[in-house]
Amino acid sequence: MKSLPLLPVRPFSGNTSEETRRGRTPLQNMIAREVTDHVRSWRFAVLLSLIALTFLGSMYVSAGNIRAAVANTQDPDHLFLYLKLLTTTDGSLPPFHIFLSFLGPLLGIGLGFDAINSEQNNGTLSRILAQPVYRDNLLLSKFAGALLVIGCLFVSLSLLMIGTGICITGVKIEPEEILRISGFLFLSILYVGFWLALAILCSIRFRQTATSALVVIGIWLFFTVFFKIVVNLAVRAFLPDPAYLLPTEIMKYNELILNLLRFSPGQLYTDGTTTLLMPSVRSLGPLTMEQMAGAIPAPLPFRESLLIVWPQVSGLTAATVVCFALSYALFMRREIRV
Amino acid sequence: MEKPVIQLKGLTKCYGSLKAVDRLDLTIHRGEIFGLLGPNGAGKTTTILMMLGLTEPTSGSVTLCGHNATTHPLAVKKVVGYMPDNLGFYANMTALDNLLYIGRLNAIPEKELHVRARQLLEVVGLTADAAQKTSTFSRGMKQRLGLAEVLLKQPEVIILDEPTLGIDPAGVRAFLTLIRQLSREQGLTVLLSSHHLHQVQQVCDRVGIFVGGKMLAEGSMDTLARGLFGSAANGVRVTVTEPLFDEHAKELRRLPGVEEVTLDDRIVEVACSEEITPEIVRFFVGNGLDVRAVQPVRYGLDDIYQTYFETKQSHEKPAPATRKALFRKYE
Question: Is Secreted a UniProt keyword of this protein (chain B) (predicted)?
Fold first, then answer.
């Protein structure tokens, strides 16, 4: 080590904004670092190619069947070309939004499961928290950084989709379709955001990255695979023999099962995206004949579809906020020991 | 009198029933280098974490540069540079990028930041490795980068937790010299924790001996030595050409001021309450013995440390415990 040239001792000037880099606050710097970290990581490259591949696959299938779908005048939605592009399938591959209900969690988990504990294990956590930044800024930067990356991914994928659609068919996109696709994007980002928040929560709770990854993946598997089975089993135990039930009672039980299933975020997401992408869907539960009487099979306006999915959106938002709040509660007063 | 830079009052931290830090009072003034000495698990790191507001004390208060560390940690973190004992860097970023990132979190203006980061990398001798990713760094290099990072924000107080762990002896010397130089030139207050006695001895103005969450003793090396060994703080070791006998020792003990005499063939160690080296030498010469060497005996930190541990042990654990048991890990 050499001797130190006398540095001018500068009175500390605080966080005045004109001093910081291009007006960046420490929080923005942290988010920028997170984004760089994600974008350069192998993990993200793998996840990105996975999402891109499923997107290309489902687009390929739907582009092949688009002519038939649009020509099908029985379908009240047949004029929404771009929504059709997102939802049409010939059965060989599920449509993109169903794919996303499986892969979205993986994306969120992959970007968040080691958010805090890897920093702690690498010894960077105590160094960062010894700097004059708020503790919650670190959590926020983890959340915002990953969400920003995911948002960019989804938005660019759908723009690609729309662009390709315009190139192939030359059909102008309707404002209603733009609204619905934006709604779909928002819902998808929110959905991934929920899993991200859950993963970050686990990364705070568990010291080992492997443990936290296993726990979140366990929760994800439970909701995608076992939850339906558990609900069915549980309801069947209580359900009287349907043969002795009135139709209205059967309806009630059906409603109950559906509502129980909606505890799974995946169900909320599928409900929401289906309603948004298929304008003719007017209810997410069963409808009685009386309710259907006099209804013309026509697409709903965007506002009406939005009203139908509003509970789902609120539910997902609430779940995300709860995870995030728990993360805060755990992290803010925890002792930062290396 | 100037306001103290670091002031701990009745600081206590409990983990369940375990008292990690027990009613600690400590005052450190500007420009001082204070060494916090203690075995593993003595509560050094916990104390440091409380100073930075990284953990909350159970009771008591920490004031750094006039800010309460528990309620206003941000104000404290602006003026304190902290180097944890197990420090890591973002492995996929270069050394320079790591420094720049920390600088940005401290809101240092960009132009100044670049100049200063390069300057500091040169100071710690990492200029050639500035563009290397930190994943390739050795422990010692990380430690040096850590020091650069601490200095980057131009702190008023530096807190170093086991700063010399994992550096080679030459590196340790350079590191400590640099810290001392910084403290002297810029009036930096330094608090360093360690269980390496000799290193602490080299640089610290004052040391505190910290065992089991309690500060057993505090003061400069001289004060500690005098407090411990009392009147017998002075000593002389004399080497003569001929073997010595017990009669010599008996006669030596008769000299005024001599407390104790230890004989070992041709070497005699005399502990005395006053400075009576000339009398001792005159005694040997008068007895016709050729004196080959006369050395003053100073009690070092080693002795102080050991004595404190022994007294503590004899107070707390009546059963004879080996010294080794002290160094077992509590953590």
Answer: no
